[in-house]
Structures are given as C-alpha cells and as structure tokens.
Amino acid sequence: MSDNENYEAAVQSASTEVASFEEQGKGLLGHFHHALHATPSLVPLIVLLSSIVIFGIVVGSNFFSAYALTLILQQVQIVGVLAAAQTLVILTAGIDLSVGAIAVFISVIMGQFTFRYGIPAPAAVICGLAIGTGIGAISGWLVSRVKLPPFIVTLGMWQIVLAANYLYSANETIRSQDIATDAPFLHFLGRTFELGGAKLNLGVVLMVILVAVLAYCLRSTAWGRHVYAVGDDPEAAKLAGVNVNQTLMSVYMLVGFICALAGWVMIGRFGSVSPSATTGTFGNIQSITAVVIGGISLFGGRGSILGAFFGALIVGVFELGLRMAGADAQWTYLLIGALIIGAVTVDQWIRKVSA
Amino acid sequence: MEPILKARGLVKRYGKVTAINHSDFDLMPGEILAVIGDNGAGKSSIVKALCGAVIPDEGEVWLEGKKVNFSSPIDARDAGIETVYQTLAMSPALSIADNMFMGRELRKPGFMGKWLHQLDRPAMEKFAREKLSELGLMTIQNINQAVESLSGGQRQGVAVARAAAFGSKVIILDEPTAALGVKESRKVLELIQDVRSRGIPIILISHNMPHVFEVADRIHIHRLGRRLAIIDPKQHSMSDAVAYMTGAQVPDGVAA
C-alpha cells in the first residue's frame, strides 16, 4: 500500500495531551460576559441590587430601612412561591397559566373545609395540599400522556379552577376575625417574628426555604438534570434514557403542590379567605414576569430558579420604590414591561457562546 | 450457534409508508455485524425496532434466546443494549458529564447520596474524562462544557464513548463515524474492535464501505425494508456489496 492510501496510520503517533490554551486577556467586559455566561442568575441579581441602590438614592434613607426591605419580602411572598412553581414548568418548555387560580381555589378549600365541614385546620391544610397536587396531576396527565400543549391545558384549567372556586365557595368570604378565633392554624404562615429590627413572617421563610430546596434539587439531583434535559430536547432525553412522561408528571404534580402552598401563604398574608382574590387572575402573569425577568428561557432547559426569585424581588422593589417615591402606579407597569424586554435582550447577549 | 439478538418477521408501517417489511435479523455472539443499504432502505428503522425506540407492528425479537418486548429505549438499555443514534440523543445545554450519565446518574455515597440524592459530580466527571481519553478525544478542554459548544465530531465522539462505556450485551452504532475526523474515526474503529475483544457484539450501520469491510465479520444487506442477504466481506468485494444494496445485482441464492 502506498503512503497515500495508508494515511490513517499516521494517527498512531497523535498527541495524547488534553488540549489547553493560554487564557488571553479578555478585558473587563470579556470577564464580565464570561461570569454572566457561567452564572445566568447574576443578571437579575445585579438588576436587583442596582434598583435597590437607585431607589435608595431617589426615595432617601426610608427605603434602606429594615422595615421597607422586609416589607418587600412580605409583599412578594405569594408571587415568589408561584414563580418557583412557574419556573419548574417553564424549564420543561411548558407554561402554567393556572398557578394563581389553583392558589385561590386551595385557599378557599382550606377555609371552607374548616368552617363548613368542621374539619380540624391542620387536616384541612393537608386536604388542600393534596387537592392542589391532584389538580397538578390532571394537568400533568393531559400534557404527558394525552400530549396536549401545556398552554392549552393550563388555559383551560385556569378557567375550570377559577369557576370551580366561585361555585364551591358560593362567592362567600371567610372573615379574618373568624379565622383568628376558630382556626388560627390557617394563619400559621402569617405569624410574624422580629429579626434584628426587621419584621418577617413564616410565609417569607417558607418562600426562601422552598427556593433553596428547589435550587438544590435542580442542580444536584438526577431529577433536576432530567427536568432540564426534558425541556431542552424531549426526544433526545427519551432516547438517552430519561422517563420523559414520569418527569413531566412529577413536575406538574409538584407545581400543583407548590401552588397549594401559595394558597396557604395567601391566608396568612391577607387574613381572610376570599374567592375573588386578585391572585386568581394576576398571579399567572406576575409569576411569568418574575420568571422572565429572572432570565429563564421560555423555550425550556435554561435558567436557574434563583433568577426567578430575584425576578420576583425586582418587581417588589419597583412596586414599593415607586409608591414611596409618590409615582403613579402605571409607572410600575411601564417599567416592568421595559424590564421584561430588557431581560430577554440581555439573555440573548449572554447566550452568544462565542464570548 | 444461537444468535444473541434475533428478530423474525418484523413489520413497521407509518400510514401508507412501510419502513420494515417482514424483515429478519440475526446478531451472533462476539461478532461485528455491519448493516448496509441504500438511503431509505430502512436500516435505521430496523435497528430502532431492536433497541426499543420503535415498537414494531408485527414480529418478534429474542435476546439471548429469551423473547423481549421493549416498549422504550430504557427497557432495552436495562437489558444491556446500548445505542448511538444518528441524532446522538444529547441535551445541548447540559454538560458532557451530565449527558454521559443521563438516566443513570451516580449518587454520592453516604447520607448526602442516600437521603438527599446528591449527585457525585467528581466521580462522574472523572469517568467521563477517562472514557473520552480512551477514544482519543483530546481536543475537549473542559468536561463541564455544554454539549452545544462542541463540534459535530466531538459530539459524536461523546455519544460513542457513552455507548461503549455502558453497553453490556449489545452495542448498536448508527453511522458512528459520519461526522468524525480521520483520527477520531480511526479511534472509533479501534474502539469497535476493542469492544468485540471484550466479547460484546456490535451492530454497525455505516455508509463507509472501507470501514465496513475492514471491521465487519458479516454484512447484513438491507434493501426495500427487509434483509436481502448476509455476505462475508472476505468473499465479496465492495463493488459487489454496492451492487447488491442498490439492486444492480442479486446475490447468489436469493430469489429475485
């Protein structure tokens, strides 16, 4: 055989070193870009911190008080919990329009089970959590087995759950005083405590713990990797050995459970149980806003739950800061709209792998 | 000798399109069986029917003499059949190590792994790096880089490394060298022979005739959705094989 035909033999003496290159000076912007690429949740964190600083300068020292800063946490607790749920669905390349409706319905169930049927409050809470998980299971089944688009399933579920909420409750509100005297356990997550001059409630603690636990699960367990893989490319995940249906099912059930937790948080936050709470209609869009500002891709498979948490806090900072500055409430919506578009723009810039 | 993987009368139709037409298949223990055929002959379809990715409408499959009914690729994988698909089946945003261990992640020993299900990343990364080095994929700088940042050839290399590392009974390679460079293709061929020397049989689907004739023990020629013939590469030339698979010529002993 001539040398030409035997060209493949030359690979015998190929290099066996793992390739490595000298780090070339990328400049400050380059390093920044790299850091953002490695940790996508840095962007919302930077926006969060700078918006706190800007409002601090505009509004004055009142904004930096422990009171104001913890007030933000208290105000975002419901949206924060819903955004945690929304993150999970969006990571699987889905979307859940029913999160707010489920939260309201479950708060009504917890209240009515206690007051209408005389079930002890802790048992009513457990029933509520179970029913929330069940509603999630129905959505999950429709998405994973019947293969319906998540948008359609949860759009329908939103209407069904919200209507069921009004029908079941007969549009009846349970007053805060009645809950406080007869079933104080329903207010459990509204209990406040002092922490170095700051006033926090257990709902905020629940939100923080929930985000921390989910962040761990998504990053460091096989289940979390499967959630990302399913959102990235479900066909590839299936061939690679991921049980796609089971993963989707677990996500939607967990989302139902977390929305039910949000329902319990609502009772603590509002005091009363009202079937017409605005969370039923605004909860969805607020949670999706937090997720998008948090840098999570609506196409699935990319982003971190910490980003969604920061996203929820950013919305809270804007709402409180603008109110304290005496601005018209419409400015809040205008700026949040700009933030959504800005967040996605920044996201595209970070995605450029060439950096 | 009893085939390790045997199929009889497989049929798969998609509406009016017939992908597999009463096809048989035999893989002997310890052999390298090449599957060749024209584009659209149904090579990928029959192989997918063997590894659970496609559920045949009719026909039966036996693994080591036992009848099997794989309803998903996970079933086939649990039975010891590992496949490299043409599409590679990788999650682009996840790291190389994550992809190699997809669906069979390692957990940390002790409390963290048992109760908190924490992944053992250092062990997974070390294993992944070793397997890539065995394949000669030295141009991958960082085992934690996302698969989407790899070149097409590197991705294919990672997919082959994954199958070779975990396959215990049968390894199926669907066009494993299509996107690889000279050195990597050579390494894949060496790896194929290395896997055979460990006693694990391989099904190799390829368009590259020199590679097929170099490594295959037998060649399964697929034509129009079924097995046309099995030929011995030592007794037939590459041009014979091409003539058979395109229908220009009919092998001896086969009714036209």
Automatic annotation (TrEMBL), chain A:
GO terms for molecular function: transmembrane transporter activity. It is found in: Cell membrane. The chain crosses the membrane at residues 42-69, 81-109, 121-143, 150-168, 200-218, 248-267, 279-299, 306-325, 331-350. GO terms for cellular component: plasma membrane. Pfam families: BPD_transp_2. CDD domains: TM_PBP1_transp_AraH_like. InterPro entries: ABC_transp_permease. It is a multi-pass membrane protein. Keywords: Cell membrane, Membrane, Transmembrane, Transmembrane helix. This is ABC transporter permease. It comes from Paracoccus methylarcula. The lineage of its organism: Bacteria, Pseudomonadati, Pseudomonadota, Alphaproteobacteria, Rhodobacterales.
UniProtKB/TrEMBL annotation, chain B:
InterPro entries: AAA+_ATPase, ABC_carbohydrate_import_ATPase, ABC_transporter-like_ATP-bd, P-loop_NTPase. It comes from the Bacteria. Residues 5-249 form the ABC transporter domain. GO terms for molecular function: ATP binding; ATP hydrolysis activity. The keyword Flavoprotein does not apply. The keyword ATP-binding applies. Pfam families: ABC_tran (PF00005). Keywords: ATP-binding, Nucleotide-binding. This is Sugar ABC transporter ATP-binding protein.
